[in-house]
Amino acid sequence: MRQKLIIANWKMHGNLARNKKLLEAYVEKLTPLNSVNIVVCVPYPYLAQAQAMLQNTDIAWGAQNLSKDAEGAFTGEVSAAMLKDFGASYVIIGHSERATAYCESDENIAIKFKQAQTQGLTPILCVGETLIEREAGVMQMVVAKQLDAIINLFGAAVFANAVISYEPIWAIGTGLAASAEQAQSMHKFIRNRIASLDEVAAASLKILYGGSVNPQNAVQLLVMQDIDGGLIGKCSLNAQEFEGICRAAT
Ligand code: PGA
């Protein structure tokens, strides 16, 4: 059985004082929940703080993006090796908030995915469709294209050491989560697509759901067969709500 994985995505929120309180509350409330894996993805400047506060706990930490290049003259970029320097073990790749605002192509995202793995980080690949695409009934085609960008370059076996987060764009930050059935159906589609190429990778691959997960809807989503956890934005900024979601995963 795949152990549940709950990942906090703080996005561009926080400051040293607020993070300290939040991380203290995470440690107090979440470390007793040892049947669920917990990760927090913080803004770059707070990686050192996450490392200092979490290094002797079961909570892992990571970043929200990385450079597709290993090193060089790339002003403003942050490399995978730099993330490793601060003990990060996960990195979010291709979140739709970045893909739209910073014009990230599927190919760029694929290269970042590989770059993360090469350096020993676990990539959390975000995929998902817009509302227009769902209403047009092409959501599976859209997600398949996002997966194929990686499969075509690197094969399906790379998913054995990766996490995919299905994040319908219409559900992110809107308070309107996908129904458990909608999410399960897409998760199964994703797993089947990988399984058709590599059954072993598909069986171990964790597929998370992200988009307006809260303590109220978490159980319904997390009991579904192919939903292995969640990527949590807004509710991860509130220790009590995040705890509620993590408990739902136990
Ligand atoms: P949300 O964000 O939980 O605030 O909807 C999820 C995400 O964007 O990862």
Walk me through this protein's architecture:
- The chain has eleven helices and eight strands.
- It is of the alpha/beta class.
- The protein has one domain: TIM Barrel (Alpha-Beta Barrel), CATH 3.20.20.
- The two termini are about 15 Å apart.
- 2-phosphoglycolic acid binds near residues 167, 173, 211 and 233.
- 2-phosphoglycolic acid binds near residues 172, 173, 210, 212 and 232.
Strand order of the largest sheet: 1-2-3-4-5-6-7-8
State the distance separating the first and last CA atoms.
13 Å
Low-confidence stretches at least 5 residues in length (pLDDT < 50)?
Answer: none
Q: Give me the number of helical elements.
A: 11
Descriptive terms for the model:
single chain; alpha/beta; TIM Barrel; binds 2-phosphoglycolic acid
Quick overview of this protein structure:
This protein has a single domain (5-249), classed as TIM Barrel, CATH 3.20.20.
Structural topology:
Layout lengths: L3 E6 L6 H15 L5 E6 L5 H8 L5 E4 L16 H6 L4 E4 L2 H6 L4 H13 L3 E6 L3 H5 L3 H16 L8 E4 L13 H16 L3 H6 L1 E5 L7 H5 L6 E4 L6 H10 L2
Parallel strand pairs: 1-2, 1-8, 2-3, 3-4, 4-5, 5-6, 6-7, 7-8
Helix pairs in contact: 1-2, 1-11, 5-7, 7-8
Bound molecules: 2-phosphoglycolic acid (PGA).
The site of 2-phosphoglycolic acid has 12 residues, from strand 8.
